[in-house]
Amino acid sequence: MGEVAKTLVSLSGPDSVHGIIPEPLVKYERTDIEPTTPNNAFSRGPDGKLLPVYEKYGRTTVVQDMHTRKQLMAQEVLAGGPGSGFIALSGGYGTLEELMEVVTWNQLGIHNRGVIVYNVE
Q1: Residue 84 neighbours by CB distance under 10 Å
Q2: Structural element, H or E, at residue 32
Q3: If residue 43 lies in a helix (H) or strand (E), which one and from where to where?
Q4: Residue 64 and residue 98: Cα distance in Å, rounded?
Q5: How far apart, in whole angstroms, are the C-alpha atoms of residue 99 and residue 14?
Q6: Closest CA to 62 of 29, 104, 96
Q7: What is the pLDDT of residues 17-49, one digit of tens each?
Q8: What is the DSSP string of 48-115?
């Protein structure tokens, strides 16, 4: 997702990207990199934790859990303009679970946005 974020930022600026990550997954990201490293990938947030650099990756919000993440992501997509929708890239069980939820919401009429599964292979 970092590469997707960087590409979108390079094309449309940092306001075009909003990454939402649950606190339990932060430890799996490369948050051990200090802001002084050559790639300058991370900076310290207001709470002192390392976050991806805004100018490079866009805005990042750390939330308590996966439920809050899905809720916030869905709110942002549904508040988006024409053409906004859900895209699932290669991932794991969490990606599959999120995909099935937004497909179910579509089936139930909770939203009418597009749902795309993108196979990078």
Answers
A1: 13
A2: none
A3: strand 42-44
A4: 16
A5: 25
A6: 29
A7: 888 988 887 767 654 455 555 455 666 666 666
A8: S-EEE-HHHH-EEEEESSHHHHHHHHHHHHHHS-TT-EEEE-S--HHHHHHHHHHHHHHHHTS---EE
- Model pTM? 0.73
Residue 78 pLDDT > 60, yes or no? yes
Name residue 31's amino acid: T
* Pairing of β 59-63 and β 50-52: unpaired
Is the pLDDT at 5 greater than 80? The verdict is yes
Question: Which residue type occupies 56?
Answer: K
Q: For residue 50, give the amino acid letter.
A: L
